[in-house]
Every structure is written in structure tokens, then in C-alpha cells.
Amino acid sequence: MDSAAQWLASYDQKLVRAAANAKAASETLSRMSGTATSPRGEVAVQVGPSGALEDIRLTPAARAMEVEQLAKLILATAQEAQRSVGSQVVEIMTDYVGDGPALDFVKQNMPPATGVDATSGARPTDNDEDYFANPRVIV
Q1: CB-based contact 62:72 (threshold 8 Å)
Q2: In this structure, what DSSP letter does residue 123 have?
Q3: Of the N and C termini of the chain, which has fewer Cβ atoms inside 10 Å?
Q4: Is-contact 33 47, C-beta < 8 A?
Q5: Smallest Cα–Cα separation from 34: which of 84, 71, 98?
Q6: Alpha helices of 31-135 — where are they, by DSSP H?
Q7: Is the dihedral of CA 84, 88, 89, 90 positive or negative?
Q8: How far apart, in whole angstroms, are the C-alpha atoms of residue 21 and residue 15?
Q9: Cα–Cα distance measured from residue 21 to residue 31, given in angstroms and rounded to the nearest whole number
Q10: Could you give all domains of the chain from N- to C-terminal order, each with its CATH number?
Q11: How many CB atoms neighbour CB 93 within 10 A?
Q12: Which of 133, 136, 92 lies closest to 110 in space, CA to CA?
């Protein structure tokens, strides 16, 4: 009977530690944000821990851009900020949950790396002929 009581006390301690770790992770994650600025500084964005857009700033130079070009720049800059916060989330979660299925799930739901098409994993090419033969459709 003594070993059962010891097991139960040990299990209770594990639960208390897990709850404390979950609370600490939640507090740390809630304070995270990712920021990115376009290469020439026309666009700056900030995203929260989930990757949701929280702030966007456009400089006067953005007004001189074509709307399609500006839209792509905003999207690319936001994705960079999302990758930034995503890497922070993975780092924090690694500290709390270690390697395993929970961390794998977090990693699988992070934005793809720069220049990678999320649907195919293919890298964009600089070949104009290929671009016109296989144009990207943005919906």
C-alpha cells in the first residue's frame, strides 16, 4: 500500500509541474510578437503569437508602388513576421514539451520558409519562360 501512496504522490507532483509549465508557457507565449520590415522599408508589420496581424505601417514610399506590387510586399512582409514569431514559439515549446508529438504538431503548423510554395514545397524560379508557362494564381 505504501508504494501505491508513493506512486500517487509522485504522479500528483508531475501534474503540479505540468500545470505550472503550461501556465508559464501560456504567459510567455502571450507576450510574444514577430516583426518584419520590407527590404527598402516601405512596409513594417507586427504579428501576435498566433501569427495574426496586429499592426501595419506604410511609409510614403509605399504610395508610389503599384497596388499589386504593394499587396505582394505586404503579404511577404507579414509572412516573414509570422516565421519570426513561429520560430520563437517552437523555441519556447521545445523548452516546455521537449521533442515529441506535441512539438511536431507545433512545427507542422508554422508558416513555410521563405521562397517555398506551401502546397508543393517547390522553390520559385527566376526563369521567366517557366513563370509564363506556369503562372501562379493568387486568389
Answers
A1: no
A2: P
A3: C
A4: yes
A5: 84
A6: 60-63, 67-97, 101-108, 128-133
A7: positive
A8: 10
A9: 16
A10: 31-133 (3.30.1310.10)
A11: 18
A12: 92
**Residue 60 exposed, middle or buried by CB count within 10 Å (0-12, 13-18, 19+):** exposed
Three cell numbers written together for 16: 503540479
Q: d(Cα 92, Cα 72) in Å, to the nearest integer?
A: 30
Q: How far is Cα 91 from Cα 56, in angstroms, rounded to an integer?
A: 25
pTM passes above 0.85: no
Element (H, E) at 21: helix 2-30
Specify whether the CB–CB gap between 89 and 49 falls below 8 A.
Answer: yes
The count of other CB atoms within 10 Å of the CB of residue 36 is 19
pLDDT (tens digit per residue) in 85-122: 888 888 888 877 778 887 788 777 776 654 433 333 33
| 50 secondary structure, DSSP code | T
The cell for 42 is: 516601405
Give the chain's length: 139
Cα–Cα nearest to 40, from 82, 70, 81, 68: 70
Question: Residue holding cell 522553390?
Answer: 123
- The residue whose grid cell reads 517552437 is 90
